[in-house]
Amino acid sequence: LQRKRAAFRNLVARELRPFEGVREELSALDSLPLGLATASPRRETELMLRVMGLRELFRATVTGDDVRNPKPHPETYLTAARRIGVEPGDCVALEDSPVGLRSAVQAGLTAIAVANTYPPEKLVEAQKVFATTAEAIRWIGQRFAAAGSG
User: Fold this and answer.
1) Which of 24, 49, 135, 147 could form a disulfide with 130 if both were Cys (CB 3.0 to 4.6 A apart)?
2) For 99, what's the count of Cα atoms within 13 Å in the CB-facing half-sphere?
3) What's the CA gap between 49 and 51, in Å, rounded?
4) Measured at the alpha carbon of residue 37, what is the angle toward residues 119 and 75, in degrees to the nearest 5?
5) Can you spell out the DSSP letters for the chain?
6) Cβ atoms < 10 Å from Cβ of 30
7) What is the pTM of this model?
8) Tell me, what's the pLDDT at 150?
9) How many CA atoms, within 13 angstroms, populate the side-chain half-sphere of residue 86?
10) Which value, to the nearest 10 degrees, does the dihedral of the CA atoms of residues 70, 87, 134, 111 take?
11) According to the model, what pLDDT value does residue 149 have?
């Protein structure tokens, strides 16, 4: 297990890059309180965020180490919403898995998905399914911009 973790950290440090357009689209949401809700361990999450240059974009990061009940239980998303100071019903969750979508929906968030891990037909709990992560983030920005102007 230690060799596997060391190999993972080495691979992340050498090869991990954000999907195209993600850093730019997240940066454009600078007026929104962003949180990250992941089942991954904190050590791996922090490493990946640092390597991709995304750490400073998130007000709060909730990992599998921070909750008693992992996804699909809603605790991860409820904790993230609380840490960013936003009611769950006012949050949008961007997911890539059926388990994550179930967690977000049970927490009361609007759930959208990107079909980069699972095909769209497996992401049935999503309000909308996008082809790319950048496209999904752009939709979030447009949704909140429209809400703020109306």
Assistant:
1) 135
2) 11
3) 6
4) 105
5) -HHHHHHHHHHHHHH--PPTTHHHHHHTTTTS--EEE-SS-HHHHHHHHHHHT-GGG-SEEE-GGG-SS-TTSTHHHHHHHHHHT--GGG-EEEESSHHHHHHHHHHT-EEEEETTSS-GGG-TT-SEEESSHHHHHHHHHHHHHHHHH-
6) 8
7) 0.92
8) 46
9) 20
10) 60
11) 53
Structure tokens at 107: 């927490």
Residue 146 corresponds to which tokens in the numbers above? 């429209």
Instruction: Record the tokens describing residue 40, joined without a space.
Output: 């991954």
Joined together, the tokens standing for residue 26 give: 């997240």
Structure tokens at 65: 């180490």
Residue with tokens 């968030």: 109
